[in-house]
Amino acid sequence: MQFGISTRILLRERLQPSLLDPILALGPAALEIFAARQHFDYTDREHVAEIAAWFASRGLTPWGLHAPQFPDREMGRAGAPPVNLLHPEKSRRIDAMDEVKRALETADQLHFAHLVVELGERGDSWSPRTLENALTALEHLDAFARPLGVRLLVKNGMNEPSQPERLVEILTIGHLARVGIALDLGHAHATTGLPAAFAATRGHLVSLRAHDNHGFKDEHLWPGQGTIDWAALPALARSAGATDLPCFLDLPNVGLAAPESFAAFAALLA
What we know:
This protein has an eight-stranded parallel beta barrel with strand order 1-2-3-4-5-6-7-8, surrounded by five helices. It has one domain (about 1-270): TIM Barrel. The protein is an alpha/beta fold. It has helices spanning about 15-25, 45-55, 90-105, 105-110, 130-145, 165-175, 185-190, 195-200, 235-240, 260-270, and strands spanning about 1-5, 30-35, 65, 115-120, 150-155, 180-185, 205-210, 245-250. Helix 3 (about 90-105) runs parallel beside helix 5 and helix 6 (about 165-175) packs parallel to helix 8 (about 195-200).
């Protein structure tokens, strides 16, 4: 597996070249930009151009972009609703798709090849209507992403519609062969368990996301601080044909003060 880092590690800070250089110095094989307006303002063309110029100056491109979770700069703390592609209200689903498309449009300058999206919010349940809404959203976003050269990836979460087996069901029913899965290891550990998640998503995996917990809730701990059996990860990845995929460290706001922790995570993947 390849060592990857999501800029979510600096979520509270405005993304800029002075932060990207230290991230690059940690040695990741792949970088993901986390789209949150207070961090990476995908609606600000000057900010997007600044980040694009840094990547161009290094001869690099971002591996992918994580779609926004909220449409504001406060991550919903001021009352803005989450970006929910499965919301029961059609107007909310349209607003969510529009927000994701605003972020996706930055591929014109950043040239990333993957967009990671989430389906629904914590507590959302599975139903025929949920399936219909998921198919509509993914078909629409996939059609928008294709001309930009971007492949859509859905991430498993903590709700019923985004469990690994449900994601595969959505992709199969919708004949969405071009849409892949970004398997979140922490979410899987706290829900179905890693062996079941890898088994369910075999043939659909495009990337992995790493954080730890104790198997009961989404704690977003450093790998090794929870109860995930990281030593078993290489064998599980091989069983799902996912040995050469990027595995992104996905921890919010941990900063850059402990380079030895990043090195330890990279060693887990070797």
